[in-house]
Prior knowledge:
This protein is of the alpha+beta class. It has two domains: 35 residues, no CATH class; 229 residues, L-fuculose-1-phosphate Aldolase, CATH 3.40.225.10. The chain has a seven-stranded mixed beta sheet, with helices on both faces. Helix 3 packs across helix 10 and helix 4 crosses helix 7. The longest helix is centred in the C-terminal third of the chain and has 24 residues. It starts with 13 loop residues before the first helix and ends with a helix.
Amino acid sequence: MISCPCGCLPSLSRRGFFATALAASAFPAAAFAADPAPAADPGLIDDIVTANHILYDQGVVDGFGHVSARHDKDPNRYLLSRSMAPALVTAGDIMEFDLDSNAIDARGRTPYLERFIHGEIYKVRPDVMAIVHSHSPAVLPFADTYVKLLPMNHIAGFLGAGPPVFEIRAGAGAATDMLVRSNAIGKALATTLGSSQVALMRGHGSVAAAQSVKHVVFRAIYTEVNARTEIQALSIGKPTFLNDKEAAAAMKTNDGLVERPWALWKQRVASK
Ligand SMILES: [Zn+2]
């Protein structure tokens, strides 16, 4: 909070102070747009960095893929690394964006081309606080064949009745590079995701959404694991999947247990 030294103004938040100052000045409004929100919780930044490392260690991302979190002080902003390999991300690489995916204070850092995935999902899913986008290899056969990815066991209950599949040709034509490189394509993907926790992306990969960084890491990892086990099951017979009620009940239970695998995965990357 900032107080006017002469006492003529009541205490103002930092943003409120600058907004008042700018309104009375000759500065263009665009200058205010770059004003950063109060700093994000360092613990949240640390979780995003750790999530990047875990997702690489667990084979969900490689040189590509990314994980974001909604800003804990401003729901209209999110946090995402600059464009780089996830395993190499440090706290200084985490950038802040508005929900149109404009960088707030880029400081020369290049953002991911596909950041629009994150902004457009945060716009329409207030329950979502973290998102992973990956090209994890075992999921791709399901994205490309439309064979349903369904929960093989309780751990993957979040898959529900099977993730929807995003078809980029439907809205962006048949000559794209498959990337979600605009708000319009990101919005179409968010529409496909709907209220699901995961959406597959034909010819590309998948996206997972959740209520925290730890939950979304859990879902991204077990989407890949479930895909592997489903392919194995399909090779020897016809699997019996969890039904909708079993999947919902299992997801509820597992949502309370994400700290356990997170602690293990975090220790693994910390010891390397
Ligand atoms: Zn991608």
